[in-house]
Amino acid sequence: MTSAPAPTTDRRRQRHLAKRATIVAEAWTLAQRDGLAAISLRDLADQVGLRQPSLYAYFDSKLALYDTMFADGNRQLIDVVSKLPERDDPHAALIEFVEELTRFAAADTVRHQLLFQRTIPGFEPSTESYAVAEEFYDIGQQRLAAAGVEDPGDVDLFTAVVSGLTHQQVANDPGGDRWVRLSGQAVAMYLAEVARTRTTPAPSRKPRAEQLTKQPTTRRTPT
Q1: Which residue from 22, 110, 141, 159 lies 20 to 30 Å from 60 (Cα-Cα)?
Q2: Which distant-in-sequence residues (6+ apart) come within 8 Å of 147 by Cβ?
């Protein structure tokens, strides 16, 4: 029979996790001030009351810090979209979902860069952190399925539409709502196109004129 962990061990782990959370929160603050790639581990250690070597007890590299920030940013996104109210109209719910994604992107440019743009050379999220991103992706697929969109190609097109809206918002109107206000129109156009391609049969390929008139060639049998 396995004995329960000692209370002292539990408290030590809780303190460790709490300190990690503090470090991540301060890392976001520094990223917003200096830029995502310019986070200084020395400055970060100073801000959280540690010496720089002690920081490695929590993150063994700067890429490990980015990995934890990646998971944290996706958890923030999941929290935001999970609070959206239920709608009887799945199309209206999908529009609201995209509007919220665009607002989320505009609210924090560096977070958007880490989650959706490859701005850090050499950074690839770990399996554990990417699983959080996939959890968000599953929420999006559920919204699409409720609106009648399940074809993989249509899903890919949806991600392209949303990426365009969010990237434009971040690049050209950070903190504003210019592309948030266009989200409803963009989603309506997307859904109309998906519906149109379902009902329009693919054009048949007509044979060329010479194929219609040319007589088949008789192949001689070798003697």
Answers
A1: 110
A2: 90, 91, 93, 94, 191
Rounding to the nearest 10 degrees, give the CA dihedral for residues 136, 139, 140, 143.
-170
Q: Are the CB atoms for 157 and 186 separated by under 8 Å? A: no
C-alpha–C-alpha distance, residues 66 and 69, integer Å: 5
Q: How far is CA 196 from the centre of its chain?
A: 27
Tens of pLDDT, residue by residue, the chain (223 residues): 555 555 677 888 899 899 999 999 999 999 999 999 999 999 999 999 999 999 999 999 999 999 999 999 999 999 999 999 999 999 999 999 999 999 999 999 999 999 999 889 999 999 999 999 999 999 999 999 999 999 999 999 999 999 999 999 999 998 889 999 999 999 999 999 999 988 765 555 544 443 333 444 444 443 3
Q: Which domains does the chain have, with CATH numbers?
A: 16-60 (1.10.10.60), 61-198 (1.10.357)
Q: Which of 199, 197, 198, 183 is nearest to 91 (CA)?
A: 183
Q: Name the DSSP letter for residue 4.
A: P
Helix or strand (DSSP H, E) at 54: helix 52-55
- Extract long-range pairs of 128-131: CB within 8 Å, 24+ residues apart: 128/71, 129/67, 129/68, 129/70, 129/71, 129/74
What global pTM score does this model have? 0.82
CB 141 within 8 A of CB 84: no
